[in-house]
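Sample intake sheet
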Amino acid sequence: MPKITADDVRVPIDVSPEFRETYVRNYLAATQNTGRLMLYACDQKIEHLNADFFGEGISPEDNNPEHLFKIGDQGVVGVLAAQKGLIARYAADYPNINYLVKMNSKTNLVETAQDDPYSALLYSMEHVLAMRDAGVNIVGIGYTIYLGSEYESTMMSEAGELISEAHAAGLPVVLWIYPRGKAIANEKDAALIAGAAGVAVCLGADFVKVNPPKASADESSAALLAQASEAAGRTGLVCAGGSTVEAEKFLSQLHEQIHIGGAAGNATGRNIHQRSLAEAVRLTKAISAITLADYDVDRACKVFAGEEDFTL
């Protein structure tokens, strides 16, 4: 796809004038000068505990947290998204990765039947900016909202405040928004996911990460996703990658999400890091080939198979 330049970046009006160039620089870095986001999600060590990193079908390499950073360093990604503490432990050894700090997280131990989900803020923007000032290559922040939870107002309030603070400092923001809680009958309902996209643009997010809607009897998941992409307006919509599936199937779904559903990229974690380092690196390149360079599925599969290399 054509590259974008600084002049093509729409800077939100709440970005402080003295940090407009910083915002543009961070936006271009996060999207690899394309306007699309390849978000490498590495926040599951809190979200799913160790179930995503050790067990049947998972490479033994994945149990060591450094595996995440080796992939981000050797592969092709837009941003590596993780909690501040995890980034702080490894960033000095991997200074070239673009980092996105996940500002809140919760485990999956408390089920919805017990209590509606609430993911509390883990640290302040002041702490993140201090780490950036110390030299860590932080280009954005992220925050999760569980829409429909009885605690949604608290999460939306925290997200709104964070977006204002991040934009004031020149940092783009990605919101993870999932309809979830006792009030939600179908988390992957297309209308609810479009609603989540609308919430993201109202809060001022630069990108929103959603689950792809469940296909209906008449329409594919990608076709239904188009409603959410349009509802997001100038907030780029990306889909969560979900659990690990066969690479060709995953790449085909991704291609449809972008070219049928109007997605502005992808957000992939387990599908990448549960593989061996060599395989995971090739998959980041195949995903980025589709997301950032408009490769078709067949050509992306050749990248994954190692028959063709991909660099930006």
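Comment: The radius of gyration is 18 Å. The longest strand covers residues 138-147.
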